[in-house]
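Q: Cell division protein, please. Structure only.
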Amino acid sequence: MPFIEHQQFIKAPIDVCFDLARNVTIHTLTATKTKERVVGGVMEGQLELGDIVIWEAFHFGIKQRLTAQVTIMERPYKFQDVMVKGAFHSFIHTHEFKEVKGGTLMFDLFEYKSPLGYLGVLADLLFLKKYMKSFIATRANELKKIAEIKV
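A: Structure for Cell division protein:
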């Protein structure tokens, strides 16, 4: 299964970063390129343990829906969401936060399995893993901008 790890330094306190990262409205602001919006489940505010959210977005020019559930919540250090339904065979997205001098290190740990067996493996090698790395990095950078304005 492909695994992506992204690290982002943010000049903001850990609790600010943690709360922004699990905020549904902020999530949509960090994913404008894919026109991401919430269409079901928790519609606004911060996600909590057990919450389900349904996202709709355009990836590769195709409108897609993804249902995710928060399965771990350890404020302000870690939360995890797991795909319940969507285009992937499966995914687990762990968000970790570490307080450091001058701010917070935010880690995105994304493990996924593509659909379609060997065709999915080929898609990973050709373009999907690169696309997901870029998507995660872009969202992290946008979250950084929002967090650093708040403090």
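A: Brief note, in case it's useful. The chain has a mean pLDDT of 95.
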